[in-house]
């Protein structure tokens, strides 16, 4: 990997090292022994095992929309048609999210925030929930946190552009597609209600590496209440896809010393993606 002077200057300014030159040895370890399957039972010595996966919600069809224009806005419907979502391609899935009223967040959102990037990107970033800017613009990771994410990805020669070489592209989505009011934490019910959309995005994308950023992305994908700091630094798996946990960029903006750890996480993910590319020939 070649580095531009600008990238070197950026990393130097962040106090971070350059991937491919001084990456830690463990970042390159991609053997099975280094992988941790999130679906595997917790070891007996684990003092705080991950909670079991909740049962899949009952499959049923969403009720027909109310046609009376004089009626108040429809209230949240209790369930998504899981069978229909599981069969959707990208355009239908995007439309389904835009029309979704499966939890109360539909009543306060400006718009849904579906996701952005190349439909065959090798990398996927999963964040938490849209904030104020995302709710306004309809795109995940915008504003200062998004700019930091873009700079970190660019340092690995990755981009959220939706065209070009899939190997250097990142698809970015949030766990929740609607903004919680006043940026409050998402509830377990909201995360559960919205999960089928993220599951389908991952199925359609089939990424080679997932970066789970922040506590709620980790809760949704790994069913773990462990803090990010305890889960980062190793490779987990989600539905067979290698997954690396790291800090959310919004957290990094407030906690500068952890930027170096986040960079190590990205280097770890880069090592995994590189190994996957070599294995795929
Ligand atoms: S957060 Fe998800 S489940 Fe809730 S209304 Fe928005 S799209 Fe639907």
Care to describe what's here?
The protein has 281 residues and is α/β, with parallel strands linked by helices. The protein has one domain (76-280): Uracil-DNA Glycosylase, subunit E, CATH 3.40.470.10. It is 38% helix and 9% strand. It is built from eleven helices and five strands; from the N terminus they run ααααβααβαβααββαα. The chain has helices at residues 5-14, 25-28, 82-86, 90-99, 132-137, 143-155, 188-205, 215-222, 228-231, 249-254, 259-280; strands at 123-127, 170-174, 209-213, 235-238, 241-246. It has a five-stranded mixed sheet with strand order 2-1-3-5-4, with helices on both faces. Strand 4 and strand 5 (241-246) form a beta hairpin. It is globular, with a radius of gyration of 19 Å. It starts with a helix and ends with a helix. Iron/sulfur cluster (SF4) binds at residues 97, 100-103, 105-106, 112, 176-178, 190, 193-194.
